[in-house]
Design a protein that fits this description.
The protein is α/β, with parallel strands linked by helices and 463 residues long. Helix content is 38%, strand content 19%. The protein has 17 helices and 17 strands. The strands form 2 sheets. Strands 6, 7, 8, 9, 10, 11, 12, 13 and 14 form a 9-stranded parallel β-sheet that branches. Strands 1, 2, 3, 4, 5, 15, 16 and 17 form an 8-stranded mixed β-sheet that branches. α4 packs antiparallel against α17 and α10 packs across α13. The protein is globular, with a radius of gyration of 23 Å.
């Protein structure tokens, strides 16, 4: 009996030591609902309302003087131009001075600075209303949420009404999975077993006001095809992962509107007789939109304390999200270079690229990480202009808003970003922000910094 107790004690010690050394790997292998390590579904905050009230007190008329405009219509710069913004709209762009139309006009000095359209992050998981301020402070003025619950619909309306300050928000419904859910016990995901339940869900999500339906790679072929058919009848776009058990040609021939992530692992199991190179070329030629989300894979291939992980980001999120970040780090090879190569093949074959980050995954912080994604796109072979297109022109086309946004020209919405340096020379210059025009109202660098400090203070109190 004594020997058994000693043996048991030694086993416990051994397992404990393994746990200390491989804790993040153990967490990664467990279901996401185990130990409650998933992030909060939705957190409220009074801060976006506070900053909305402040923005509402600002002038409706602004004049930028002698600014270099990067219109994004072509790869060019309109140097030393004057830009008039009135009631949230770009009214005039001229080489010569524009006379102020109102005594309340605020003049913003643009000499030596660069004006670009507001940026878009086309793949986020918005789990906290403070995420809105992180995006605004980084010039991200459009966002697509990729796992929606009813709170996101309410938030979308509050942003549109001006009650809260935030980017234009688009949202999918809950993730549509098969019977073997990955995100089980999570209201942002629903598992389906029968075509009738898919039909009911599509009609319900359409009535509720979701902008897209998100399919996951776990959805079986029969349910995927039913989803595609019913979504076509109801006129609501399908976006998301490529289903593993559906032949690639069939998915690409469908109305599946955007493909999320470049995923060598998942894509290897789709039509396994085809090489990844062939599949990438097929996706590029398919005229589908592709949102690569490179930065999330780069970040997740690490351990706590790694020099490449921006631990300062922890100040902007709640404790539960910080724990989720730790559990999502893997420190395992994830074929990152292969993902870059696959993106290059997709691009060479005419692929339509959208910039997205997959926030709020491990150390992928809303707003900040969109700039990192732009840098990764350039590292993968895109020019700075093409990377900017993926976050301005292309999102506007994808969302059917090209007449309103995505480029700088008279009549467009005045969602703009003023930079200290030329991002066409170095894409990292998108982080050198002088200020943001949100719906035509100026938020200076000082105000944006204060906004970020308030979010940090909010979570500093929670520690």
């Amino acid at each position: 009996m004594k020997k058994k107790r000693i043996r048991f004690f030694l086993i416990v010690v051994f397992v404990g030591l393994l746990g200390c050394f491989f804790w993040s790997d153990i967490l990664r292998l467990l279901p996401f609902n185990f130990l409650n390590i998933h992030p909060p579904i939705y957190l409220t905050s009074p801060l976006p309302e506070t900053f909305a009230r402040r923005a509402d007190q600002k002038s409706d008329v602004y004049l930028l003087s002698q600014v270099s405009v990067i219109p994004m219509t072509t790869d060019t710069i309109l140097r030393n131009h004057y830009v008039l913004l009135e009631n949230g709209i770009i009214k005039e762009i001229r080489e010569h001075p524009i006379q102020s139309p109102s005594p309340s006009t605020v003049v913003v000095e643009g000499q030596g600075k660069y004006l670009i359209p507001g940026l878009a992050d086309m793949h986020i998981h918005l789990n906290d209303e403070n995420n809105l301020l992180l995006m605004i402070a980084n010039g991200v003025l459009t966002a697509r949420n990729m796992s929606g619950v009813e709170a996101h619909l309410a938030l979308k309306h509050r942003i549109e009404s001006g009650e809260v300050l935030g980017p234009d928000l688009y949202t999918t419904g809950p993730i549509m999975e098969g019977p073997h859910q990955i995100w089980r016990n999570n209201p942002g995901s629903v598992g389906f077993t029968h075509p009738d339940s898919v039909i009911f869900a599509v009609r319900r999500y359409k009535r509720m006001g979701y902008d897209f339906l998100k399919v996951y790679h776990t959805l079986p072929p029969k349910l995927y095809l039913q989803l595609i058919h019913t979504a076509g009848v109801e006129d609501i776009p399908v976006v998301g992962h490529l289903p593993i058990d559906v032949p690639l040609e069939q998915s690409l021939a469908s109305t599946h509107f955007s493909i999320e992530h470049i995923s060598p692992g998942q894509w290897s199991d789709i039509s396994p007789e085809l090489s990844l190179k062939t599949k990438s070329a097929m996706i590029g030629r398919s005229d589908k939109w592709i949102c690569p989300t490179l930065i999330v894979n780069k970040k997740m291939n690490g351990r706590p304390g790694d020099p490449g992980l921006p631990e300062a980001y922890e100040q902007y999120v709640d404790p539960k999200t910080r724990r989720f970040w730790q559990g999502r780090l893997s420190n395992r090879p994830n074929a990152y270079e292969l993902r870059q190569e696959m993106l290059a093949i997709i691009r060479a074959n005419g692929g339509n690229i959208l910039a997205g980050t997959d926030a709020i995954n491990a150390y992928v912080l809303p707003g900040f990480s969109l700039h990192e994604e732009l840098q990764e796109l350039v590292e993968a072979g895109l020019s700075p202009f093409e990377a900017l297109q993926a976050s301005t022109v292309h999102p506007a086309e994808f969302l059917g808003r090209s007449k309103e946004t995505g480029t700088i020209s008279p009549g467009k919405t005045a969602d703009l970003l003023l930079l200290h340096n030329n991002p066409l020379e170095d894409i990292r210059h998108t982080t050198h922000i002088e200020g943001v025009f949100h719906k035509g109202r100026w938020l200076s660098h000082t105000e944006l910094t204060y906004m970020l400090e308030e979010v940090k203070a909010w979570y500093g109190r929670a520690r």
